[in-house]
Design a protein that fits this description.
The chain is an alpha/beta fold. The chain is built from nine helices and eleven strands. The longest helix is centred in the first third of the chain and has 21 residues.
Length: 291
C-alpha cells in the first residue's frame, strides 16, 4: 500500500510517518521541510500537487496538514479549506482508494451532554474549529459526488513526545523546571474534565482507518476517560518537583470527554497508552533535549 501523509513534519505527522513506515511505503508532504520521502509542496498549489500525485499513484491519502493561526481567517480558510479541496480534487483525478481526514474535537463546541458522541450538535467557537467543520462538509461533498471512501477522525487532545510547548502537559513540565507555579483553575462547576489521547494511539487509529472497508465514517478518537488538570499535575509531580496553586474562575468550564464506541465497533480501535509515569518521562526527556 502506498500512502501519502500531508503535514508530515508536524507533531502527529512525524510520528505517523514512522509508525506507518513499518508496514507500508510512505511519502509525506510538508510546507516547511524536505527530506528523504518528504516533499516540500504547498497544498494550495493545485498544479504541483496534482503532478506529484499522478506520478506516485497513491492508494491512501492521510490529510493532517492544517493552519492554527486564529488571527488570520483568510489564510486559515485557504490553508485548511481550499487545501482540503485541492487534496480531494487530486484524489478524485488519480483514483485514490481512500482518504483519512484529521478533524478535531473542537467542532462540537460547548458540550450539551457527556460523554460526547459523533451525533452531538456541532457549534464551533473558533476559526480553526469552524474550518475543520467546513472541511468535514467538503469531504462529504466529494464522497457523495465521486464515491471516494473517506474516514473522518475527530481527535481529542493529543499528547506525546515532541509536542509544542504551548500545550498543557509540556507547559506544566517547562514551568516546573523553571520553578514557576502551576495554576489549577477551579470553575463554578468544578475542575474542567478533558480527554487526552497519546499520539501513538492516534497513529493506530489512522492505520486502522486505512484498512477499513467502510465507505464513509466519522469517529471520535480519544481515550474515552475524563481527566483534570489537577490529575495531570499529580502525575507529573511523580517525576518533577512542582508547586501548584488553585485559582477560582467565575464561569463554568466546558467539560469534554468522548464516547469512542463507534470507533471501537467499526475500526477496532482501542486506546492502549495510559497517561502514566513512563510516558510522562518520555515527554520530559524530549523537552529537556531541546533546551
Amino acid at each position: 500500500m502506498r500512502i501519502l501523509v500531508t503535514g508530515a513534519s508536524g507533531f502527529i505527522g512525524s510520528h505517523l510517518v514512522k509508525y506507518l513506515s513499518r508496514n507500508y511505503r510512505i511519502h509525506g508532504l510538508s510546507s516547511s521541510k524536505k527530506s528523504q520521502n518528504i516533499f516540500q509542496i504547498s497544498l494550495s498549489d493545485k498544479q504541483k500537487l496534482a503532478k506529484h500525485m499522478k506520478k506516485n499513484k497513491y492508494d491512501v491519502v492521510v490529510h493532517l496538514a492544517a493552519s492554527l493561526e486564529e488571527s488570520e481567517p483568510l489564510d486559515m480558510f485557504i490553508k485548511n479549506c481550499v487545501s482540503t479541496t485541492n487534496i480531494l480534487e487530486c484524489c478524485a483525478e488519480t483514483n485514490v482508494a481512500k482518504v483519512i481526514f484529521s478533524s478535531s474535537q473542537l467542532v462540537y463546541g460547548k458540550s450539551e451532554y457527556l460523554p460526547i458522541d459523533e451525533d452531538h450538535p456541532k457549534n464551533p467557537i473558533s476559526n480553526y474549529a469552524l474550518s475543520k467543520l467546513i472541511c468535514e462538509e467538503i469531504c462529504k461533498m466529494y464522497h457523495n459526488t465521486y464515491g471516494i471512501p473517506i474516514q473522518i477522525l475527530r481527535l481529542s487532545s493529543v499528547y506525546g513526545p515532541g509536542q509544542s510547548p504551548k500545550y498543557i502537559i509540556p507547559t506544566m513540565m517547562i514551568n516546573s523546571v523553571n520553578n514557576k507555579d502551576i495554576k489549577i483553575h477551579h470553575y463554578k462547576n468544578g475542575l474542567q474534565l478533558m480527554d487526552f489521547v497519546h499520539v501513538q494511539d492516534v497513529c493506530k487509529a489512522i492505520s486502522l482507518a486505512c484498512k477499513s472497508k467502510s465507505k464513509f465514517g466519522i469517529y471520535n478518537i480519544a481515550s474515552g476517560k475524563p481527566i483534570t488538570a489537577n490529575d495531570i499535575a499529580n502525575k507529573i509531580s511523580q517525576i518533577i518537583q512542582m508547586h501548584t496553586i488553585s485559582t477560582s474562575i467565575d464561569r463554568e468550564a466546558n467539560h469534554l470527554f468522548y464516547d469512542i464506541s463507534h470507533a471501537e465497533r467499526e475500526l477496532g480501535f482501542k486506546p492502549s497508552v495510559k497517561l502514566e509515569k513512563k510516558i510522562l518521562k518520555e515527554i520530559y526527556k524530549s523537552i529537556v533535549s531541546k533546551r
